[in-house]
Amino acid sequence: MLDELRELRHHVEATEGRIEAHCAAMVEELKNPSAERDRGAVDDARHRVMILRNDMRGLIDRLDGAMRTLSLQTLPGRPAAEMREIAAVQTFLRGVRYRYLRWAQIDSAVQRVLDWQGAPLLGAIPDPGTVAGQQLLATDAAFRRLHGFVNQAGQDDGAEAMGCFADIPLHASAFAELAHAAMRVGLAQGRVGRQRFLDVGCGCGLKLIQAVQFFAEAHGVEYDPGYAAAARQLIALAGCGREKVFEGDALEFDDYGQYDVIYMYRPLKDETLMTRLEDLILTQAAPGTVVIAPYSGFQAQPDRKACARIEGELYLVGATEAEAETLRTAAERFLPANVPLARDASAADSYLAPIIAACWLNGCLVT
Protein backbone atom coordinates (compact mmCIF):
# COMPACT_ATOMS: atom_id res chain seq x y z
CA MET A 1 0.00 0.00 0.00
CA LEU A 2 2.86 2.39 0.73
CA ASP A 3 4.22 1.76 -2.75
CA GLU A 4 0.87 2.82 -4.20
CA LEU A 5 0.88 5.98 -2.07
CA ARG A 6 4.37 6.82 -3.27
CA GLU A 7 3.45 6.26 -6.91
CA LEU A 8 0.28 8.37 -6.64
CA ARG A 9 2.16 11.15 -4.88
CA HIS A 10 4.75 11.10 -7.65
CA HIS A 11 2.00 11.49 -10.30
CA VAL A 12 0.38 14.33 -8.36
CA GLU A 13 3.71 16.15 -8.00
CA ALA A 14 4.40 15.75 -11.71
CA THR A 15 0.95 17.10 -12.61
CA GLU A 16 1.35 20.07 -10.28
CA GLY A 17 4.73 20.70 -11.87
CA ARG A 18 3.10 20.97 -15.30
CA ILE A 19 0.42 23.29 -13.89
CA GLU A 20 3.16 25.40 -12.32
CA ALA A 21 4.87 25.81 -15.69
CA HIS A 22 1.65 27.10 -17.27
CA CYS A 23 1.08 29.45 -14.32
CA ALA A 24 4.60 30.82 -14.77
CA ALA A 25 3.83 31.55 -18.42
CA MET A 26 0.71 33.46 -17.39
CA VAL A 27 2.66 35.45 -14.81
CA GLU A 28 5.15 36.61 -17.44
CA GLU A 29 2.30 37.95 -19.58
CA LEU A 30 0.45 39.57 -16.67
CA LYS A 31 3.62 41.49 -15.78
CA ASN A 32 3.35 43.31 -19.11
CA PRO A 33 1.21 46.41 -19.64
CA SER A 34 -2.28 45.40 -20.72
CA ALA A 35 -1.75 46.66 -24.28
CA GLU A 36 1.33 44.46 -24.70
CA ARG A 37 -0.05 41.16 -23.36
CA ASP A 38 -0.52 38.12 -25.55
CA ARG A 39 -4.03 37.22 -24.46
CA GLY A 40 -4.02 34.14 -26.65
CA ALA A 41 -1.00 32.78 -24.79
CA VAL A 42 -2.69 33.38 -21.41
CA ASP A 43 -5.93 31.74 -22.53
CA ASP A 44 -4.00 28.77 -23.93
CA ALA A 45 -2.20 28.32 -20.62
CA ARG A 46 -5.49 28.55 -18.73
CA HIS A 47 -7.02 25.89 -20.99
CA ARG A 48 -4.08 23.57 -20.39
CA VAL A 49 -4.40 24.08 -16.64
CA MET A 50 -8.09 23.16 -16.90
CA ILE A 51 -7.19 19.87 -18.63
CA LEU A 52 -4.53 19.07 -16.04
CA ARG A 53 -6.98 19.86 -13.26
CA ASN A 54 -9.30 17.20 -14.63
CA ASP A 55 -6.42 14.72 -14.32
CA MET A 56 -5.69 16.09 -10.84
CA ARG A 57 -9.27 15.47 -9.70
CA GLY A 58 -8.87 11.78 -10.47
CA LEU A 59 -5.48 11.61 -8.79
CA ILE A 60 -6.79 13.30 -5.64
CA ASP A 61 -9.66 10.81 -5.47
CA ARG A 62 -7.30 7.87 -5.89
CA LEU A 63 -4.85 9.19 -3.32
CA ASP A 64 -7.67 9.91 -0.90
CA GLY A 65 -9.05 6.40 -1.40
CA ALA A 66 -5.65 4.84 -0.78
CA MET A 67 -5.31 6.83 2.44
CA ARG A 68 -8.74 5.67 3.63
CA THR A 69 -7.85 2.04 2.84
CA LEU A 70 -4.61 2.38 4.74
CA SER A 71 -6.43 3.87 7.73
CA LEU A 72 -8.52 0.68 7.99
CA GLN A 73 -5.41 -1.39 8.36
CA THR A 74 -3.65 -1.87 11.66
CA LEU A 75 -1.29 1.08 12.05
CA PRO A 76 0.14 0.31 15.52
CA GLY A 77 3.36 -1.61 15.21
CA ARG A 78 4.39 -0.03 11.90
CA PRO A 79 7.95 1.32 11.80
CA ALA A 80 8.25 4.95 12.84
CA ALA A 81 9.64 5.89 9.41
CA GLU A 82 6.52 4.51 7.71
CA MET A 83 4.23 6.39 10.11
CA ARG A 84 6.08 9.63 9.36
CA GLU A 85 5.76 8.99 5.64
CA ILE A 86 2.02 8.37 5.94
CA ALA A 87 1.60 11.59 7.95
CA ALA A 88 3.61 13.48 5.33
CA VAL A 89 1.33 12.20 2.56
CA GLN A 90 -1.73 13.31 4.54
CA THR A 91 -0.26 16.81 4.85
CA PHE A 92 0.69 16.79 1.17
CA LEU A 93 -2.84 15.77 0.18
CA ARG A 94 -4.37 18.63 2.17
CA GLY A 95 -2.14 21.12 0.33
CA VAL A 96 -2.95 19.62 -3.06
CA ARG A 97 -6.67 19.76 -2.38
CA TYR A 98 -6.36 23.39 -1.16
CA ARG A 99 -4.57 24.44 -4.36
CA TYR A 100 -7.03 22.52 -6.51
CA LEU A 101 -9.98 24.36 -4.95
CA ARG A 102 -8.18 27.72 -4.94
CA TRP A 103 -7.65 27.70 -8.67
CA ALA A 104 -11.24 28.69 -9.50
CA GLN A 105 -10.81 31.97 -7.61
CA ILE A 106 -7.42 32.63 -9.21
CA ASP A 107 -8.69 31.87 -12.71
CA SER A 108 -11.59 34.27 -12.16
CA ALA A 109 -9.11 36.98 -11.13
CA VAL A 110 -7.00 36.36 -14.24
CA GLN A 111 -10.15 36.65 -16.35
CA ARG A 112 -10.96 40.00 -14.71
CA VAL A 113 -7.46 41.30 -15.39
CA LEU A 114 -7.69 40.27 -19.04
CA ASP A 115 -11.19 41.70 -19.56
CA TRP A 116 -10.60 45.00 -17.75
CA GLN A 117 -10.76 47.88 -20.21
CA GLY A 118 -9.68 50.56 -17.76
CA ALA A 119 -11.47 53.45 -16.06
CA PRO A 120 -10.70 57.14 -15.57
CA LEU A 121 -8.87 58.06 -12.38
CA LEU A 122 -11.47 60.67 -11.48
CA GLY A 123 -15.13 61.32 -12.22
CA ALA A 124 -16.68 58.28 -10.56
CA ILE A 125 -18.65 60.24 -7.94
CA PRO A 126 -22.32 59.91 -8.94
CA ASP A 127 -24.54 62.89 -9.72
CA PRO A 128 -26.41 64.17 -6.62
CA GLY A 129 -29.66 63.70 -8.52
CA THR A 130 -29.21 59.92 -8.64
CA VAL A 131 -30.01 57.39 -5.94
CA ALA A 132 -26.31 56.59 -5.51
CA GLY A 133 -25.53 60.32 -5.35
CA GLN A 134 -28.04 60.86 -2.56
CA GLN A 135 -26.59 57.94 -0.62
CA LEU A 136 -23.12 59.47 -0.94
CA LEU A 137 -24.39 62.86 0.24
CA ALA A 138 -25.82 61.13 3.32
CA THR A 139 -22.46 59.47 3.95
CA ASP A 140 -20.66 62.81 3.67
CA ALA A 141 -23.15 64.33 6.12
CA ALA A 142 -22.50 61.50 8.58
CA PHE A 143 -18.74 62.10 8.29
CA ARG A 144 -19.27 65.80 9.02
CA ARG A 145 -21.18 64.95 12.17
CA LEU A 146 -18.51 62.45 13.15
CA HIS A 147 -15.85 65.09 12.60
CA GLY A 148 -17.62 67.44 15.02
CA PHE A 149 -17.82 64.70 17.60
CA VAL A 150 -14.16 63.65 17.24
CA ASN A 151 -12.74 67.18 17.33
CA GLN A 152 -14.50 69.25 19.97
CA ALA A 153 -11.48 71.45 20.66
CA GLY A 154 -11.62 75.07 19.54
CA GLN A 155 -8.76 76.37 17.46
CA ASP A 156 -5.64 77.11 19.50
CA ASP A 157 -4.75 80.83 19.78
CA GLY A 158 -1.20 80.11 18.65
CA ALA A 159 -2.42 78.26 15.59
CA GLU A 160 -4.80 81.07 14.72
CA ALA A 161 -2.01 83.61 15.13
CA MET A 162 0.20 81.48 12.89
CA GLY A 163 -2.43 81.81 10.18
CA CYS A 164 -3.63 78.22 10.21
CA PHE A 165 -7.12 77.44 9.02
CA ALA A 166 -9.48 75.83 11.50
CA ASP A 167 -10.07 72.08 11.10
CA ILE A 168 -12.45 72.12 8.13
CA PRO A 169 -12.26 68.82 6.24
CA LEU A 170 -12.72 68.06 2.57
CA HIS A 171 -15.84 65.97 1.91
CA ALA A 172 -15.16 62.31 2.66
CA SER A 173 -16.33 61.24 -0.82
CA ALA A 174 -14.08 63.76 -2.59
CA PHE A 175 -11.09 62.68 -0.52
CA ALA A 176 -11.80 59.01 -1.15
CA GLU A 177 -11.89 59.61 -4.90
CA LEU A 178 -8.57 61.46 -4.85
CA ALA A 179 -6.88 58.96 -2.51
CA HIS A 180 -8.11 56.02 -4.58
CA ALA A 181 -6.77 57.66 -7.75
CA ALA A 182 -3.40 58.27 -6.08
CA MET A 183 -3.30 54.62 -5.03
CA ARG A 184 -3.88 53.50 -8.64
CA VAL A 185 -1.06 55.80 -9.75
CA GLY A 186 1.10 54.04 -7.15
CA LEU A 187 0.15 50.68 -8.67
CA ALA A 188 1.31 51.94 -12.05
CA GLN A 189 4.58 53.01 -10.41
CA GLY A 190 5.06 49.51 -8.97
CA ARG A 191 4.47 50.60 -5.37
CA VAL A 192 1.99 47.86 -4.51
CA GLY A 193 1.34 47.61 -0.79
CA ARG A 194 4.02 50.08 0.27
CA GLN A 195 2.72 53.60 -0.41
CA ARG A 196 3.23 56.06 2.46
CA PHE A 197 0.73 58.90 2.80
CA LEU A 198 1.13 62.27 4.56
CA ASP A 199 -1.66 64.72 5.43
CA VAL A 200 -0.25 68.23 5.90
CA GLY A 201 -2.54 69.85 8.45
CA CYS A 202 -4.35 66.67 9.44
CA GLY A 203 -6.68 68.23 12.02
CA CYS A 204 -8.46 65.58 14.07
CA GLY A 205 -7.11 62.75 11.91
CA LEU A 206 -10.26 61.47 10.20
CA LYS A 207 -8.54 61.54 6.81
CA LEU A 208 -5.80 59.30 8.21
CA ILE A 209 -8.44 56.71 9.08
CA GLN A 210 -9.70 56.93 5.51
CA ALA A 211 -6.21 56.91 4.03
CA VAL A 212 -5.21 53.54 5.50
CA GLN A 213 -7.92 51.98 3.34
CA PHE A 214 -5.70 52.88 0.38
CA PHE A 215 -2.12 53.18 1.64
CA ALA A 216 0.30 51.12 3.71
CA GLU A 217 0.89 53.96 6.18
CA ALA A 218 -0.87 57.27 6.86
CA HIS A 219 0.85 60.04 8.81
CA GLY A 220 -0.22 63.58 9.61
CA VAL A 221 1.45 66.87 10.54
CA GLU A 222 -0.61 69.21 12.75
CA TYR A 223 0.37 72.57 14.27
CA ASP A 224 -2.60 72.95 16.62
CA PRO A 225 -1.92 70.97 19.82
CA GLY A 226 -5.63 70.44 20.54
CA TYR A 227 -6.27 69.05 17.08
CA ALA A 228 -3.16 66.86 17.29
CA ALA A 229 -4.35 65.45 20.62
CA ALA A 230 -7.77 64.68 19.12
CA ALA A 231 -6.08 62.92 16.19
CA ARG A 232 -3.94 60.77 18.48
CA GLN A 233 -6.99 59.82 20.54
CA LEU A 234 -8.91 58.86 17.40
CA ILE A 235 -6.00 56.77 16.15
CA ALA A 236 -5.74 54.99 19.50
CA LEU A 237 -9.47 54.21 19.46
CA ALA A 238 -9.35 53.02 15.84
CA GLY A 239 -6.56 50.62 16.72
CA CYS A 240 -5.20 50.21 13.21
CA GLY A 241 -1.60 51.02 14.12
CA ARG A 242 -0.64 52.32 10.68
CA GLU A 243 -1.33 55.99 11.43
CA LYS A 244 0.89 58.52 13.17
CA VAL A 245 0.60 62.23 13.99
CA PHE A 246 3.51 64.68 14.24
CA GLU A 247 2.71 67.81 16.20
CA GLY A 248 4.59 70.80 14.85
CA ASP A 249 5.02 73.39 12.13
CA ALA A 250 4.68 72.03 8.59
CA LEU A 251 7.14 74.74 7.49
CA GLU A 252 9.76 73.11 9.74
CA PHE A 253 8.96 69.51 8.80
CA ASP A 254 11.91 67.95 6.99
CA ASP A 255 10.69 64.45 6.06
CA TYR A 256 8.50 65.17 3.03
CA GLY A 257 10.90 63.11 0.97
CA GLN A 258 9.85 59.96 2.87
CA TYR A 259 6.32 59.88 1.44
CA ASP A 260 4.80 58.63 -1.80
CA VAL A 261 1.56 60.63 -1.54
CA ILE A 262 1.29 64.07 0.10
CA TYR A 263 -2.12 65.65 0.70
CA MET A 264 -2.86 69.23 1.75
CA TYR A 265 -6.18 71.05 1.80
CA ARG A 266 -4.80 74.60 2.08
CA PRO A 267 -3.76 74.51 5.75
CA LEU A 268 -2.53 78.17 5.84
CA LYS A 269 -4.43 81.40 5.16
CA ASP A 270 -1.45 83.58 4.28
CA GLU A 271 -0.58 83.35 0.58
CA THR A 272 3.13 83.93 1.16
CA LEU A 273 3.36 81.22 3.84
CA MET A 274 1.30 78.87 1.70
CA THR A 275 3.68 79.40 -1.22
CA ARG A 276 6.63 78.70 1.08
CA LEU A 277 4.99 75.47 2.23
CA GLU A 278 4.24 74.33 -1.30
CA ASP A 279 7.79 75.07 -2.45
CA LEU A 280 9.25 73.28 0.61
CA ILE A 281 7.19 70.17 -0.13
CA LEU A 282 8.02 70.18 -3.83
CA THR A 283 11.71 70.71 -3.09
CA GLN A 284 11.94 67.85 -0.58
CA ALA A 285 9.57 65.37 -2.21
CA ALA A 286 11.22 62.67 -4.29
CA PRO A 287 10.55 62.55 -8.05
CA GLY A 288 7.42 60.48 -8.64
CA THR A 289 5.70 61.63 -5.46
CA VAL A 290 1.98 62.27 -5.94
CA VAL A 291 0.68 65.53 -4.48
CA ILE A 292 -3.05 65.88 -3.80
CA ALA A 293 -3.90 69.59 -3.60
CA PRO A 294 -7.67 70.19 -3.88
CA TYR A 295 -7.68 73.99 -3.69
CA SER A 296 -7.58 76.74 -6.29
CA GLY A 297 -4.30 78.38 -5.24
CA PHE A 298 -2.23 75.37 -6.20
CA GLN A 299 -4.21 74.69 -9.36
CA ALA A 300 -3.91 78.26 -10.57
CA GLN A 301 -0.14 78.17 -11.00
CA PRO A 302 0.94 74.67 -12.05
CA ASP A 303 3.61 76.06 -14.39
CA ARG A 304 5.70 77.50 -11.56
CA LYS A 305 5.61 74.22 -9.65
CA ALA A 306 8.27 71.57 -10.01
CA CYS A 307 5.57 69.08 -10.98
CA ALA A 308 2.99 68.29 -13.63
CA ARG A 309 -0.72 67.66 -13.40
CA ILE A 310 -1.74 64.01 -13.64
CA GLU A 311 -5.45 64.76 -13.63
CA GLY A 312 -7.72 67.07 -11.69
CA GLU A 313 -6.09 67.85 -8.35
CA LEU A 314 -3.40 65.17 -8.62
CA TYR A 315 0.16 66.26 -9.44
CA LEU A 316 3.40 64.38 -10.09
CA VAL A 317 6.62 65.78 -8.62
CA GLY A 318 9.67 66.11 -10.86
CA ALA A 319 7.83 65.17 -14.03
CA THR A 320 7.00 66.70 -17.38
CA GLU A 321 3.44 66.93 -18.65
CA ALA A 322 4.16 64.09 -21.07
CA GLU A 323 5.47 61.86 -18.25
CA ALA A 324 2.43 62.63 -16.10
CA GLU A 325 0.13 61.83 -19.02
CA THR A 326 1.89 58.52 -19.64
CA LEU A 327 1.54 57.58 -15.98
CA ARG A 328 -2.14 58.58 -15.95
CA THR A 329 -2.83 56.33 -18.93
CA ALA A 330 -1.00 53.44 -17.25
CA ALA A 331 -2.83 53.98 -13.95
CA GLU A 332 -6.23 53.89 -15.67
CA ARG A 333 -5.49 50.33 -16.82
CA PHE A 334 -5.28 49.05 -13.25
CA LEU A 335 -8.35 47.52 -11.67
CA PRO A 336 -9.88 49.68 -8.92
CA ALA A 337 -9.54 47.27 -5.98
CA ASN A 338 -8.01 48.76 -2.82
CA VAL A 339 -4.63 47.16 -2.15
CA PRO A 340 -3.13 49.15 0.74
CA LEU A 341 -0.99 46.28 2.02
CA ALA A 342 1.09 43.63 0.34
CA ARG A 343 -0.29 40.13 0.87
CA ASP A 344 1.96 37.59 2.52
CA ALA A 345 1.77 34.41 0.49
CA SER A 346 0.50 31.34 2.31
CA ALA A 347 2.86 28.40 2.36
CA ALA A 348 -0.04 26.31 1.06
CA ASP A 349 -0.27 28.53 -2.05
CA SER A 350 3.08 27.15 -3.17
CA TYR A 351 3.47 27.64 -6.94
CA LEU A 352 0.24 29.67 -7.04
CA ALA A 353 1.83 32.53 -5.08
CA PRO A 354 3.41 34.24 -8.14
CA ILE A 355 0.17 34.33 -10.11
CA ILE A 356 -1.72 35.63 -7.06
CA ALA A 357 0.92 38.37 -6.77
CA ALA A 358 0.59 39.13 -10.49
CA CYS A 359 -3.15 39.68 -10.05
CA TRP A 360 -2.46 41.98 -7.10
CA LEU A 361 0.05 43.93 -9.21
CA ASN A 362 -2.84 44.61 -11.60
CA GLY A 363 -5.09 45.78 -8.78
CA CYS A 364 -7.15 42.60 -8.64
CA LEU A 365 -7.39 41.03 -5.19
CA VAL A 366 -7.21 37.30 -4.55
CA THR A 367 -7.92 36.91 -0.85
Task: Fill in the keyword field for this structure.
alpha/beta; 367 residues; 12 helices
Biggest sheet, open or closed, and with what strands and sense?
7 strands, mixed
Distance between the amino and carboxyl termini: 38 Å
Q: Beta fraction of the residues?
A: 5-15%
User: What overall form do the CA principal axes indicate?
Assistant: elongated
Helix vs. strand class = alpha/beta
- The helix-strand sequence is HHHHHHEHEHEEHEHEEHH
Radius of gyration: 27 Å
- Average pLDDT, rounded to a whole number, is 88
Low-confidence stretches: none
Indicate the percent of residues in helices: 55-70%
Count up the helices. 12
Per DSSP E runs of 2 or more residues, the count of β-strands stands at: 7
Strand order of the largest sheet: 3-2-1-4-5-7-6
Write the layout of secondary structure elements.
Elements: H1 2-30, H2 39-72, H3 80-115, H4 131-150, H5 157-162, H6 172-188, E1 196-200, H7 206-211, E2 217-222, H8 225-238, E3 243-247, E4 261-264, H9 271-284, E5 290-292, H10 296-300, E6 307-311, E7 314-317, H11 321-332, H12 353-361
Parallel strand pairs: 1-2, 1-4, 2-3, 4-5
Antiparallel strand pairs: 5-7, 6-7
